Structure formats: structure tokens, C-alpha cells
Amino acid sequence: MSREFGYTDADFNKVRSELRALAGINLADSKVSLVYSRLAPRVRKLGLKEVKQYLNYLETHPDEQEHFINALTTNLTSFFREPHHFDMLQEFIQSGERCERLWCAASSTGEEPYSIAMTLVKAFGRFDISSRLVASDIDSSVLNKASSGVYPLDKVDPIENKKSFFLRGKDANLGYAKVVPQLRNLIEFRKVNLLDNSYPIQAGLDVIFCRNVMIYFDKETQVQILEKLLEKLRPGGLYIAGHSENFNHLGHLMTPIGRTAYRKV
Ligand SMILES: C[S@@+](CC[C@H](N)C(=O)[O-])C[C@H]1O[C@@H](n2cnc3c(N)ncnc32)[C@H](O)[C@@H]1O
């Protein structure tokens, strides 16, 4: 295969080990071409000729780590993805459980935390609520996008009651909608690497959403991260995982209550 920049198996293996060390993410053998296509824009931008030169640059310029991570994370998400989890959150609130502080721990471009916030507003029947949500990700570019709260109309159109939650753009913003300030104000966006030893979030949380990110970590790292996340959740608090992230074997830590949803023991 002819490529614009030099790229060898050794480069791929180095990318793999760097990404694993920085973000915990394991790349499968099949991701050789994906890695090249994600890094090529950085190699081009820096005026380099080979991925190997880029990896040397990464080693000597710690600031480049942010671009490296941003380029290699997979940020697929959508509004009300796995909708049963939002029904569960609504039931949790309506059963009278305390739901004041929530954390969405791999929030990508924001569709997930805004879906949580819309669920809070729906469950409480108003915007003026005391509940607050921290939404975090390792990737600074998706956090910026999430924080701006601007989405193409086709993503927003299927949302129930969208007129209460979004403003349609005009002129230069035609074709886009922006989250209303009352919804945006319920969320604080922060950069958090789940691999870090401790998280800058106060303990006693009522709900944690951590969906579709554990799949990138090996089993041992998953359990280490889960234990750190659970330190932040109150007993009886709700922990929501992604559809292929099953923790039923950790019954001493949390009790399964439905499709990849748990209550802290
Ligand atoms: C596939 S998206 C899932 C988004 C959302 N939770 C959902 O289920 O729709 C995975 C997200 O995890 C983030 N991520 C990957 N490694 C991470 C880490 N070590 N710490 C925090 N976030 C991470 C990525 O940047 C990406 O935005």
C-alpha cells in the first residue's frame, strides 16, 4: 500500500504502547490502517516525513500528547443511546432516591450528558433543579465541542420535546441547534483521564454513567478503574455501564439491577 508518510509495524507497536501508557486504551492488531489515518494529519501539520519522526517528536514534546490522544480516541455517541438507561434514571428519581450529583465519566461530544440533563428536567418537571452533572473525557477536542452545545439538526430532530431543550440556528447557524442555557448550566465539563490515580470529583455521588469506554481497557484496568469510580459513589447509588460492559461477576461491589445497570453495595 502506498502511503504519503513512512509507516512500519514497529511504529504501530510504539503507538500502541504509548496510547496504552497514556490512556489505558488497547488497540487491536487490526487497527494498523486506522492508526495511520488518524495520525497522518498531525504528521503533515508538523511538516514531518515519517510516523517514526512523529513518535520522536512526541517523546521530546510532552504538549503533543494531547493531540496524540485526541487523534486516537473513538468518540462514537448519540442522544439517548441505549434509551433504557434514561428510563432507569427517571425511575430512580421518581422513586424518591436522592439524585443531586451525577457524573458522566466518558462524555465524548456531549450527547450523553445532555440526555442525562434532559432526563433530570423531565423527571423533576422543571429546569430549576438543584441536581448538577459533571461530564468528563480525556479528549479535549470533544470536551470543547460538548461545551459549545451545538449539534446538527438531524441529530436533534428525533429528541422528544426538543423545542424545550434546543434553539434552532439562523443565518450562519442554519442547520444547527444549540442547547438552551438552562440545560447547559446543569453541566460542568472537565478533563479527566480515568487512568489517573485519583479523580478530582467529590465523593458521595448519586449516579455515575460510565458507558462504552471500559471496552477499550484490559480486564485488570477495568476493575481498577471501577473500584476508583465506586469510591466516588454513595452506597445505593446508581452505576450505569455500556451495553457490552458486564460487571455481574463483581457482586461484592455492586448489585445488578437490569441491563448493565447496578447499585453500589
Ligand atoms: C465510544 S465513546 C463513548 C461515549 C459515551 N459514553 C457513549 O456511550 O455514547 C468513548 C469515550 O471515552 C473516552 N476515553 C477513552 N479513554 C479514556 C480515558 N482513559 N479517560 C477518560 N475518557 C476516555 C474517549 O475520548 C471517548 O470520548
TrEMBL record:
Alphabetic keyword roster: Methyltransferase, S-adenosyl-L-methionine, Transferase
Membrane-spanning intervals of the chain: none
Any one GO biological process: methylation
Reactions this protein catalyses: L-glutamyl-[protein] + S-adenosyl-L-methionine = [protein]-L-glutamate 5-O-methyl ester + S-adenosyl-L-homocysteine
Domain CheR-type methyltransferase: 1-265
Keyword Methyltransferase: yes
Binding of S-adenosyl-L-methionine, residues: 75, 77, 81, 112, 137, 193-194, 211-212
EC nos: 2.1.1.80
UniProt cross-references to PROSITE patterns, sorted A to Z: CHER
Gene Ontology MF annotations: protein-glutamate O-methyltransferase activity
Keyword match Disulfide bond: no
Function text: Methylation of the membrane-bound methyl-accepting chemotaxis proteins (MCP) to form gamma-glutamyl methyl ester residues in MCP.
Protein name, UniProt field: Chemotaxis protein methyltransferase
Protein's gene: cheR
